[in-house]
Amino acid sequence: MIVIVSGLPRSGTSLMMQMLQAGGMPLLTDALRPADADNLNGYWEYEPVKHLQQDNSWIPKAEGQAVKVISALLPYLPPQHTYRIIFMQRPLQEVLASQTAMLERRGKQGDKADDKTLGPIFAQHLDRTEHWLATQKHMTVLPVNYHETITNPEETAARVAQFLDLPLAVDAMAHAVDPRLHRQRGV
To answer: Fold for domain 2-181?
Structure first.
């Protein structure tokens, strides 16, 4: 089994990776993208994931571990493996606000017009992804609400541990959640 933490960018995937690590789950990460003002506790990424469409030869290395894969790349996971996918869900307004703030901090001008364009595109992508995931026999999905994770981390941690059927340290997972990091909210 390979554990995949997925969702849109800025949807809470790094938070979930942090929770899994605190709970004792081995992670496939490389620390190439360091923590910054947008993800104070790090990004928890593995660089080869970004090239999954062209090269999935690293997938066997992920067996027994959790790895972060954005939702757009899920269809490129090879079907000969079994995946448990923790799919982070966050309101689109917050995802867009977080992305805009990140781009502005990096000197790339965010634009509200982009939000008007991206919102429907992201919504359509999520709808297609949800329908596609429901047809995949080698994938099991646990939707995880970002807000519920922030407000009730104990319940989310318990649900994740039960879904993965692993003896994770649920209390440690819950304590890894810092509500102060929920800075970008929808308007």
So the answer is: Rossmann fold (3.40.50)
